């Protein structure tokens, strides 16, 4: 199959999932065309089956905001015709499904019918999409897609509750490439670079937005380090980072916290990690938690959104109500205090992650693609 993938090329979960999906499809012999405004961060090397097409948005004084949707839909039309692309897979309802639908209509006028699969990731539904300004466009884009998927049952439920959706929504969960992400236990991690021998290493990875509840991460760690020697590794960047640094200073733990900024070496950081904190207000799925679990790292998380579908209570970690810092800290200590308990949770985390291996999830997409293509035969 010749597939165009439209996504955000950033460090966010949707861009990572879209890129990894495309790369695995290419390894299986499909021809993949990434179409976006810059090269996706996980798309380090191009292979014979992978292509990247940049969407350029010309700047005109007439426009206060440059019309990305217009440029994207025009680029899709050109690439479909030039490369004989058979299917569009767009990640995010707006602007991508909206632009995809416009491309479909332009192509239809030229006698080309191409199916479009839309994958909902979360922010496009629960945050941006539910805004009154965008709600009609999101509803329209979802209903005009040929097939729609969501990354969790929770997100599907939210979508059906918030929008007047007539289309079926199929749940296809996010995935992990275990062969690449799993730490080899026979290769020791250089923990001494980051912490002393008796210190536990705790990690948080996100885009540091308010929804991630960064102050909760700091306060949970503050309670942990009062009981056991520990270090906190904060990976990512965003609007809450500076406040987090100030909070660490106020609590007197700045010397125990390392702020990395954005990183392409997540696997190396997780290799050092004993526990992952994700106390988010909500997560449509919780890809960061899954990446941690694939590296044998148990997870302490909120029980909001799709997180209970990924982090299994008492098995791969623990879940608590949003904002319950005390319970999250106590659950962290349950895992961290004894070496034997920590080791059990580490193995359990990997076992749960195996259920989301890309080898189990990718055939679901391939079957859906074939179904979409057959619709127009």
Automatic annotation (TrEMBL):
Chain ranges of the Glycosyltransferase subfamily 4-like N-terminal domain: 11-179
Pfam families found in the cross-reference section: Glyco_transf_4, Glycos_transf_1
BP GO annotations: bacillithiol biosynthetic process
Upper lineage: Bacteria, Pseudomonadati, Bacteroidota, Flavobacteriia, Flavobacteriales
Protein known as: N-acetyl-alpha-D-glucosaminyl L-malate synthase BshA
Residue stretches making up the Glycosyl transferase family domain: 195-349
Family matches, as Gene3D superfamilies: Glycogen Phosphorylase B (3.40.50.2000)
InterPro entries to which the protein is assigned, alphabetical: Glyco_trans_1, Glyco_trans_4-like_N, Glycosyltransferase_grp1, Thiol_BshA
GO MF assignments: glycosyltransferase activity
């Amino acid at each position: 199959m010749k597939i165009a993938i439209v996504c955000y090329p950033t460090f966010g979960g949707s861009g990572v999932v879209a890129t990894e999906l495309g790369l695995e499809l290419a390894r299986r012999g499909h021809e993949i065309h990434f179409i976006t405004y810059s090269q996706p961060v996980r798309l380090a090397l191009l292979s014979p089956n992978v292509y990247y097409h940049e969407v350029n948005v010309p700047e005109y004084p007439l426009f206060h905001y440059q019309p990305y949707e217009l440029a994207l839909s025009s680029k899709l039309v050109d690439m479909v015709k030039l490369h004989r692309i058979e299917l569009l897979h767009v990640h995010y309802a707006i602007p991508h499904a909206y632009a995809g639908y416009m491309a479909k209509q332009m192509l239809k006028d030229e006698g080309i019918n191409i199916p479009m699969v839309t994958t909902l990731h979360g922010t496009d539904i629960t945050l941006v999409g539910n805004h009154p300004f965008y709600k009609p466009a999101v509803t329209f884009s979802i209903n005009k897609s040929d097939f729609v998927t969501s990354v969790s049952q929770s997100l599907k439920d939210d979508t059906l509750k918030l929008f007047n959706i007539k289309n079926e929504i199929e749940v296809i969960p996010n995935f992990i490439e275990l062969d690449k992400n799993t730490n080899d236990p026979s290769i020791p991690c250089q923990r001494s670079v980051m912490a002393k021998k008796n210190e536990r290493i705790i990690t948080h990875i996100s885009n540091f937005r308010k929804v991630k509840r960064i102050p909760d991460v700091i306060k949970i760690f503050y309670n942990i380090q009062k009981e056991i020697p520990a270090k906190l590794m904060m990976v990512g960047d965003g609007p809450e980072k500076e406040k987090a640094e100030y909070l660490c200073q106020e609590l007197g733990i700045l010397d125990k916290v390392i702020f990395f900024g954005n990183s392409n070496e997540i696997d190396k950081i997780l290799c050092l990690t004993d526990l992952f904190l994700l106390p988010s207000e909500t997560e449509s799925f919780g890809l960061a938690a899954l990446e941690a679990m694939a590296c044998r790292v148990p997870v302490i998380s909120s029980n909001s959104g799709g997180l209970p579908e990924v982090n299994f209570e008492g098995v791969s970690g623990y879940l608590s109500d949003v904002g319950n810092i005390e319970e999250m800290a106590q659950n962290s200590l349950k895992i961290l205090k004894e070496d034997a308990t920590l080791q059990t949770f580490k193995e359990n985390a990997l076992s749960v992650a195996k259920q989301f291996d890309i080898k189990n999830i990718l055939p679901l997409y391939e079957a859906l693609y074939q179904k979409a293509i057959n619709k127009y035969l």
